[in-house]
Amino acid sequence: MPRDFLQSGVPQAHTTTRQRLTSLLDLPKLYRTIDADPAIVGAAVVHIGSDYQVTVLREFVPLCSIRPKRVMLREMAGPIRAAEEYAQLAASSPRESQVWKEASGVVSSCGGAVIGIIIAKAGIAAAPFSAGTSLALSYVALAGTAASGVQCLNSLWRTYNEFVNPAENDYYDSLGWYQTMTVALDGISLVGAGSTTFATVKTIMAIKHSTGREVTDVLRHMSRQERAKLTTEVLRLKNPRHPSAIVRLKQLSGQLPRRFSNSQIRLSIMTQIQDQIGATLAVAGSTLSGNVNHVIVALYEEFDSHEI
Amino acid sequence: MKYSVDPFREYLIWRRYAYRFLPVWGGALLLCLNTIAGNMAHSLSYYAALYHLSTEYSFGTGVALCLIFYVGQAMLWEGSRHAFRVLVTVIIANILLSIAYLGSHAVTLLNLLPLFSALLYILVLNSKKHRRFTSILRVKRRRKVRANARRQ
């Protein structure tokens, strides 16, 4: 089998499915029949085996419409059904269950919400490193977290619906205000994620500028001199209008710190890393069902609402 | 006692609290959200259908319950002593909704889930850790108020 794979570049399971289908069906004739109908010319052909293995036999070519259309050939497990039975089955279960998709949305948005609240609360502590923007950013992060919380409720509700009444999810997906709300919530949580990323990048750049270290070295303990240089850099960023002499005088008088301690720096960076985990979860949640991968969601919608 | 507003010290205190109380606090948050979501899918949509209303009403009610819950949570974070009343009101409303739904539907595990998580939420809310957590936040708020009053 590995030899076949190396030769053809296609895993054998796929090859055999394709070969089996080619021998079972007259694919060129099927394609011709599809292309003869102007409503579905160029539609993709997808085969779903009885073991739910999906094989794309032909990709969609945007001739009939810009929106993708797919002709699905689904193998039925068990005894062969009559046409009425099949029609009834198709009517009662119009789509595949998306419980896992919804459940993964729950994990990402709820995790993002919980971590986000912790970070938004701690964001104030990261103030010395984020050049004074941290407080404004922490409000943005709070708004993002609140949006993540509502997203969490939304995804929990969708998961329940997937068990109780999957048609409800489809209905809501077709509602304009619901789509707008989802996109808005995604947007707000993404802005929250973006703001925390901005703070992290700023911290790392400040450390890199002052110490000349690589990014991977950021967590290592710093020497006295390095910490003093970092403190000067941070104070310079925090007080852009003050001349360096004034900053120096304030440091000497004890109004500003001379150098941050190692634990201070480490804790601040750890906060930022936790923050990043929250931000990544927010982005992942959006990828699954929202802004970042909007096209894929749209594809599913087209696929669900298509009537063949 | 002197109330310090040093952000770093604040952070250290806060971090200690977070590690100590995160499981109980995060768990309570998720339990309550799970209850509200379950009732949105089961009870509220059932009542919307019963009264020939659109299911958007059930969605709106669920989101309103969620927002009231968030207000309660925010009050809890700020150390308000009325937070508990808001949270308990929300959860009692949820318990009533889930019991009412079970009155006319089969008692399955899925149907029982909102009720169970609501009851568990009340247990968590009254657990020793959660009570300690809220009382610490209240003390912190009182100290802050006192420090501000002294400064003025």
Order of strands, main sheet of chain A, comes to: 2-1-3
What structural class do helix, strand and pairing data of chain B support? mainly alpha
Uncertain segments of chain B: none
Q: Nearest-angstrom radius of gyration of chain B?
A: 19 Å
The ordered string of helix (H) and strand (E) elements of chain A is HHHEEEHHHHHHHHH
Overall tally of domains of chain B: 1
Mean pLDDT of chain B: 86
Distance between the termini of chain A: 38 Å
Largest two-chain interface: A-B, 31 and 30 residues
Would you mind describing this structure in some detail?
The complex is a heterodimer of chains A (308) and B (152). Chain A is mainly alpha-helical and 308 residues long. Chain A is 66% helix and 5% strand. Chain A contains 12 helices and 3 strands; from the N terminus they run H-H-H-E-E-E-H-H-H-H-H-H-H-H-H. In chain A, strands 2-1-3 form a 3-stranded mixed sheet, with helices on one face. In chain A, helix 5 (99-122) runs antiparallel to helix 11 (262-289) and helix 8 crosses helix 9. In chain A, 31% of the residues are buried. The model of chain A is unreliable at 122-135 and 289-308 (pLDDT under 50). Chain B has one domain. Chain B has 152 residues and is mainly α. Chain A binds chain B through residues 110, 113-114, 118, 121-122, 124-128, 146, 149-150, 152-153, 156-157, 159-161, 163-165, 168, 171-172, 175, 264, 267, 271, and chain B through 7-8, 10-12, 14-15, 18, 22, 26, 29-30, 33-34, 36-38, 40-42, 45, 55-56, 59, 62-63, 66, 70, 77, 110.
Descriptive tags:
heterodimer, A: 308 residues, mainly alpha, three-stranded mixed beta sheet, 3 strands, 5% strand, elongated, disordered C terminus, B: 152 residues
